[in-house]
From TrEMBL:
InterPro entries assigned: FSCA_dom_sf, MIP18-like, NUBPL-like, P-loop_NTPase, YlxH/NBP35
MIP18 family-like domain sequence ranges: 1-46
Pfam families on file: FeS_assembly_P, ParA
Stretches the record annotates as Disordered: 135-156
The species this protein was found in: Microbacterium schleiferi
Name assigned to this protein: P-loop NTPase
Gene Ontology terms: biological process: iron-sulfur cluster assembly
Keywords on record: ATP-binding, Nucleotide-binding
One GO MF term attached to the UniProt entry: ATP binding
Length: 156
């Protein structure tokens, strides 16, 4: 996402490219880049220039994030180690989301790679349970790059 960086007489200029216009994490990314830049010895000021990736740049980023995996594949085939656990109930307020969050964090703590989808038709609560809230206290929107969605992470 870094297009360029230079420092002259203690003044740093860093150019970054967001994945999409209106990126929900834009303010956080700019703030993080500014903080990281100002932490470099000898840098006294930071000018952060924020742009948006073009289709070619997004394509390169997507390929890097996919790490050689095909663009679309069925992850639940007979040779896959992927397992799906659905937590459901016909009644509301019985602790489905809490149980799901605890199950996911326990599996992750045991070293498994875990993904969690909150598909509650009345609204999602998992981001709040896991503490994945934005600066305004609302759950942040996921970052989307073309047909690839980058999930928020609580435990890595």
């Amino acid at each position: 996402m870094v297009r360029g960086a230079r420092v002259e007489d203690g003044a740093a200029r860093v150019e970054i490219a967001l994945t999409v216009a209106g990126c929900p994490a834009a303010a956080r990314i700019e703030s993080d880049v500014r903080s990281a830049t100002l932490s470099v010895p000898g840098v006294s000021s930071a000018d952060i220039v924020v742009g948006v990736m073009d289709a070619t740049e997004r394509g390169r980023l997507t390929e890097m994030l996919r790490a050689g995996r095909p663009a679309r594949s069925m992850p639940f085939g007979p040779d896959s180690l992927t397992r799906v656990i659905a937590v459901t109930s016909g009644k509301g307020g019985v602790g489905k989301s809490t149980l799901t969050a605890l199950l996911a964090t326990t599996l992750a703590a045991r070293g498994l790679r875990v993904g969690l989808i909150d598909a509650d038709v009345h609204g999602f609560s998992i981001p709040g349970i896991l503490g994945l809230l934005g600066p305004d206290g609302a759950p942040p929107q996921p970052t989307r790059i073309d047909d690839l969605m980058l999930p928020r992470s609580r435990t890595g």
